Structure formats: structure tokens, C-alpha cells
Amino acid sequence: MVRRLWQALAGLIVLLLAAGSAAAENKLAFVVGINAYPNLSPDAQLQRGVNDAEAVGDALQFLGFEVTRVTSGAALDTILSRFGQFVSTVSPGDTVAFFYAGHGISLDDGVYLVPSDVPALGPTDELRAKRVAIAERDFTQQIRASGARVALIVIDACRDNPFPRRGTRAIGASTRGLGPLTPAEGVFTLYSAREGQTALDRLSDSDASRNSVFTRVFVEDLKKPGLSLSDLGEAVRDEVAALARTAQHDQVPAVYNDLLGARTIFLAGREATGFFEKNNSVSLPDAISAAPPVSKRPERLEQARLPQETHAMQAIPRPTSPHKTCARRPTSNGNVVYCASSVLPPQFGNSYGVQNLFGAASNAWVAGSRGFAIGEWILVEFDETRLLTSITLANGYQKNSDIFYKNTRVKQLEVLTSSGDTNNFVLKDRLGTQQLLFNSPLQAKWIALIIRDVFPGNKYTDTAISKLDVHGASN
């Protein structure tokens, strides 16, 4: 009897420990992006390494990862120190992602990632190179030694060798791209190009994307629900190869899968739920009913109104941005100026300027910042002070239902006025217009709408608003 009791108790302890371990699993990511190599030639400087790291970091963060970023001052000691701190936070059973965008070289014992403070190296400096660069396998081994259940390694470093070739010799195994990788046990690795190929920073000189050809595809596929880790690698490989071919370039990402169960691992979930929920219904333009439904009054789309003084507010400075663009809109009450903190550059024959907020119904303003445009803003300024009552907007890119859900839409807006009023509004994720009502008329010369949260697109990270009107009367 006692023996059976101890056996049952031992089994219960095992179950509790297992449950505790499962509950403790975390998702952690270490992201490095480098543009500047001060000791190397002008040809060795990069344009999109930092942008790529930030875009991947944003996507991973949105998937619930705690992200450590090294995108400035990425010297050897800094990377090693930050990575050591990072690995110390990894526990057995965790999911770990590692992303690197910068230069890499292939030496006789593997691939080395090049920190920003690397000195100029000659063709016979391979021993020295091993001391001033970091072996990719060292990152992988430390992650595996931490007991991580899932290790995803993504390297966007398959560019031309940054060290000059002299005669018939150059440091490293190849002057183009990186050499082959020996797969590490328990690791899923993705290189931006296979052995001997180079990875494109851009498709052409007119390519307006802020990200490399590989990373722009990887970021979008990473966020797609229903893609297992195995499917993710295959999708990225095929899509990057097809995109590179449009620029007459051979670039086929290399996928190394030595992770058992990779087909059962879904970083963005098995189905389109949560942040990625997709609603295919089309709503007609309307305002939400306010109080009891029978009243038929529009309801304020507001999560919570921030505390504010009831007496006259002090004027506050308007938002500003070095990338600000503006457009003037003539109205029956005088000119209104619309400004936006940034604008996505024209592409595929479409333009995304702030004037689209009061133009044709099929156009939209699209923020030009990387990631999900958190903190980007639109400012509307009037000829004279007005009493503002409400805002009407069409959220997202409403060209059609497919485009609407492919692009990112605004979820939460913080609304400021020149007189100091502050309101928060939570928008609905749907086609059509929405009306935002203030508790009482606000006196203001200008009003600014700041993006605080978004509904992610199922294909793109570009954040859009199709139409915007601010309603009020002159004093």
C-alpha cells in the first residue's frame, strides 16, 4: 500500500514538474543588424542591414518574442557581451530565434559573422580573421547548450566578400556569398542565399523597399498563421528565388533543417486567430450607435478618455518629423492642411501621399516607416481656430477586401489638439467608414492623430488609412 502511495505521489510530482516546465517556456530572440564598417572600403558599407534587423525584430515581437536588438555600435565586444546576457535568460524548453544582417565570410572551419569594428584584412589574414569575427556555429552551440527546445537561426549575410581580392587570392573560401553549412543538431537554419550565390540588397536602384530582397519576404511569411517551420523555409526559398529572378539574379535561400518536429512548430499559430484574425465581411459606411440602440445616435469609438483639466489648456507643440509631407485641401470653410510624419515611396504605379486622405476612394495614405508605423501621425491644421465635434475615417487600404486585409490597419489612435486635449480611440477592423465623437466640442487650431496600435496585415506591414475628415465649425 505504502509503495503504491509513493508511486502515485512520484507520478504526481512528475506531472507537476512537467506542467511547470511547459508554463515556463518563453520565446526569445536575438537580432543583429549592421550597416557601417568604418575600417573597410566604401564598397563594403551596407544600406539595409539595420532596417532588416529592425523589421525582423518587430515581426518577432508581434509574435510574442522578447527581442534583444543590437543595431547600433555592433562591435565585437558589444555583440559578445549582449549575446552572453541574452543566453543567460534562456531556459530549457524555450523557443529561441537568432537573426543576423551584415557581412559574413567563409573560412576553412565555417561561416564567420563580421562585427562593425572589424579591421581591414588581407588575403593571408585568415587566422586573424577568426579572432576579430564570430563563428556562426558558436552562436548556435550556445543556444543549443541552453536547452532551448526550438532554435531558429536566420543569416542574411550572403553578400560579396568585404575584404579586397589581390591577384588570385582573397580571404575566405569564396569571393561570392558564403560556403556550405554543416547542419547543427536540433537547429533550423535559413541562409539568404545558397553556397556561392550573393544576396540582393535591392532589386534595382529604383527599388523603394527599406529591406533586402530576402528579409522583405521572410518578414511577411514569418507572420503567416498556418505555416509550420518547415513550410516557412520552403515558402521563403521559393518566393525569394522568384523575386530575385525578376532582377535577372540567381538567389535561392539555403534551408538546413536538423530540428525534429519542424513540421509541427507554428511560430504564428496554426490558424488565423488573435492578431491575425481575418474577417471577410464587408460593412457599409456607418457610425456606431451610441447609447441604447433605440437612440440612433453615433457612439464614440473610445476605449478610455485620458484625464484632462476642465479649465483652459495650455497650447502644446505640434508633432514634427524630418520626413513630414503636407498637402493643402480647399474647403468651403477655407483651406485645410493635411500633414503626415512619413509616406511610403511610390511603387507599382501607385502613390501613397497624404493627399489620398481626401482624394479618390480607391487610394490611401500609407506610412513610410518600417514595421507597423507605431508612433507615426497625421496632423490636420485649419486656417483659424475651430470647434471640433468628430472625426470620420476609413481605416486601412480600402481598394478592395483583399487589399484591405493584406495591409496593416490602425487599431488605436491617440488624438491630440493644439489646446492640449487628449483622447484615445479604439477602431474597428472593418471596411467602410467609422465616426469618432468627442465628449464635447474641442477648440483647436490643429488636431493630430498618432498611431498607438495596429491590426497586422496578412501579407504586408504597411499601415494605411484611406480617408480622413475632421468635422467642426469656426468660432
What keywords describe this structure?
single chain, 475 residues, alpha+beta, Rossmann fold, Jelly Rolls, 2 domains, 8-stranded antiparallel β-sheet, 6-stranded mixed β-sheet, elongated, disordered N terminus
Please describe what this structure looks like:
- This protein is an alpha+beta fold and 475 residues long.
- It folds into 2 domains: 240 residues, Rossmann fold (3-Layer(aba) Sandwich); 192 residues, Jelly Rolls (Sandwich).
- Helices cover 21% and strands 27% of the residues.
- The chain contains 8 helices and 17 strands.
- Strands 10, 11, 12, 13, 14, 15, 16 and 17 form an 8-stranded antiparallel β-sheet that branches. A 6-stranded mixed β-sheet has the order 2-1-3-7-8-9, sandwiched between helices. It has a 3-stranded antiparallel β-sheet with strand order 4-5-6.
- Helix 2 links the parallel strand 1 and strand 2.
- Helix 2 runs parallel beside helix 6.
- The longest helix is centred in the N-terminal third of the chain and has 23 residues.
- The protein is elongated and about 75 Å long.
- The chain starts with a helix and ends with a strand.
- The N terminus is likely disordered.
Low-confidence stretches: 1-24, 272-314
Give the helix/strand class.
Answer: alpha+beta
**Rounded average pLDDT:** 79
Largest sheet: 8 strands, antiparallel
Under CATH, the topology of the largest domain can be stated as Rossmann fold
The CATH class designation of the largest domain is Alpha Beta
The proportion of residues in beta strands is 25-35%
Q: Give the H and E element order.
A: HEHEHEEEHEHEEHHEEEEEHEEEE
- Estimated radius of gyration: 26 Å
Tertiary shape: elongated
Total domain units = 2
Helix residue percentage: 10-25%
Q: Count of DSSP helices?
A: 8
CATH architecture of the largest domain: 3-Layer(aba) Sandwich
| Strands, total number | 17
Straight-line distance between termini:
88 Å
